[in-house]
Amino acid sequence: MTENSIIELKNVSKHYDSTNVVDNFNLKIKKGEFVTFLGPSGCGKTTTLRMIAGFELPDEGQILLNGEDISYLPPYKRPVNTVFQKYALFPHLDVYDNIAFGLKLKKVSDGDKMRRLTTDEIDEKVRNALKIVDLEEYEWRNISTLSGGQQQRIAIARAIVNEPEILLLDEPLGALDLKMRKDMQLELKEMHKKLGITFIYVTHDQEEALTLSDTVVVMKDGMIQQIGSPEEIYNEPENAFVANFIGESNIYSGTIAGEKKVRFINHVFDCVDEFPKNEKVDVVIRPEDVRLKKDDDESLVKGKIVSKIFKGIHYEYILMVGRNEIVVVDTKDREVGKTYGLQIKPDGIHIMKKELHTNTYTDAYIDKNNKVVISDAAFDCDITKLVKGSRLEEDGTVTGPDGTSYDFTDADVIAEIGLTDIEILDYVEDATVSGTIVSIIYKGDHYQLTIRTEQDEDFVLDTEYTYDENDVVGLKVKAKDISLKLKGEAKKYAKK
Fold this sequence. Notes:
It is a single chain. It contains eight helices and 35 strands. It is an alpha+beta fold. Strand 26 (391-392) and strand 27 form a beta hairpin. The chain starts with a strand and ends in a 10-residue tail after the last strand.
């Protein structure tokens, strides 16, 4: 355990059927810290919170509280309370009785025996809880007369009245309108300071996470993408997903052009990150890190304003640099159609290793029709790629250059498909396989889509066409665009 750590999750995983909801999750949380699990719906953040609370049990790994394993400890024995998005207040009880409900059932140690709390003790604890949530004098109000924000504070008061070491909050502001949500963000931050206990918070709202947290844990598909302070997460995203999910970003595919130099949008820029020359990378530029200059400076890349939106304290512009879009924020009112030079300082250019260069499927196999099966779908392929210099015979066997005949039925192979080699179709009837779009990242002149099949296999592709998340689409791949490699030696499949 790290010094001052209160909760540690070690290699925690949770599966539902064949789906990994939480996958090898490792995290240490300090005592008194405000930690937020941030990610899109279905990323595993609520499941992780429920495992800490004891409502779900991990299939693998450990959950440690002050160094002791509580992975299988029942919820009522954990010094943890949870506030849910649906407050689950008792409508037939007034504010006082809602908050006092748990205290009336609670037993405390009194020497050698256990006793219930006295009325005076309960009164004092309820008053203190109401004071923390700024609802003194509301004890006898009916729950139905309270606003959404007030009900949310009563739910928090009911959770903190038991003096837990850790308060878990599962999207508690999700049911509130925008203004009330922003007000409650400030209230929650103030409550955290007053209480001094550990808050673990779940949200899909990026602004909420950045406003409230000491530490943000960004999640995707049950896995941690990045852990850091709000400033670190925003200013130094570790991959394109984090950059795209946290705030506005310009994301481009780039190439390292030399020492601390990177080429993207057809221009070479100075940068501060060091990567090997010619390495393909992802480049992230925040809109506020681009400066618009007069277009008479020949050293600057030029862009034309094609869109302008007034956002109160600044304007948001979209400029076209060739076929690439770049979003810029600026306080000056500029004219659509004008051309400007774009100045981006080296420390405003964030370079990340590409997560994916090609789709690789290590559990593919060849069926009896000499097709490669990926995600239960059979794709046409060039079976002769498995033996260099071979040819395909009429009976479906492959003859090598030395005359050896091979039958690759049921052969295990590794299949690779490039990001630009997958054709996306609106009509799934015409496709080899279909799936749901689960992620969209815009990269200046194209979109990078992740399509997930019913078998939880992902196909990642680049396209210039616009789609929405949760669209169901079909996919096709030409036989020549599927690279094949045998697992093991070809002689295993030689015909005798």
